[in-house]
């Protein structure tokens, strides 16, 4: 297990459009400046972008906080009563919790109160399948948290540098 995780970032993608999920993840250690910034984000909601603490259970009375505590903030506007809000508070929350716990089960991070996970979540506003969103969120969370905990392999980092002139992105259409 890597204890030197404070301030480590990564991203993960899971699923396919319109039910795909993108996550940016930040890991922190309790008491650090990074943890303080996560706490600030958690305590600063605004309409359509309410941070939530991942918790799971069969009913609201049965909720249990996921450990490590995982704060989820939607990057997609979650209109009250809309599909994105439903997916953020339901399918994505469960999938992210599962993905984080998958990485705990692999031994990369601890299931304790000293480790914090911040997940900035993007869901396509056209999403329509909660089972697919849950699976996509789990895949994205597991990939992002594992990468943040362990880092990219040296070969991947070296390939990025070597291929930097040919880098592209799906949202870039230029030459």
UniProtKB/TrEMBL annotation:
Residues 19-171 form the Formaldehyde-activating enzyme domain. It comes from Microbacterium panaciterrae. SUPFAM superfamilies: Ribosomal protein S5 domain 2-like. The keyword Lyase applies. It holds the Pfam family Fae. The gene is fae. Keywords: Lyase. The keyword Lyase applies. This is Formaldehyde-activating enzyme.
């Amino acid at each position: 297990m890597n204890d030197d995780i404070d301030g480590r970032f990564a991203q993960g993608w899971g699923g396919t459009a319109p039910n795909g999920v993108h996550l940016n993840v930040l890991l922190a250690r309790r008491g650090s400046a990074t943890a303080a910034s996560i706490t600030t984000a958690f305590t600063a909601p605004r309409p359509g972008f309410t941070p939530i603490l991942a918790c799971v259970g069969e009913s609201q009375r049965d909720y249990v906080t996921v450990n490590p505590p995982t704060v989820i903030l939607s990057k997609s506007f979650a209109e009250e009563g809309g599909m994105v809000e439903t997916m953020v508070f339901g399918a994505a929350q469960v999938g992210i919790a599962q993905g984080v716990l998958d990485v705990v089960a692999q031994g990369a991070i601890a299931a304790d109160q000293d480790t914090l996970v911040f997940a900035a979540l993007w869901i396509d506003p056209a999403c329509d399948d909660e089972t697919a969103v849950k699976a996509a969120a789990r895949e994205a969370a597991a990939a992002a948290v594992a990468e943040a905990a362990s880092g990219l392999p040296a070969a991947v980092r070296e390939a990025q540098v070597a291929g930097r002139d040919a880098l592209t992105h799906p949202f870039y259409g230029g030459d």
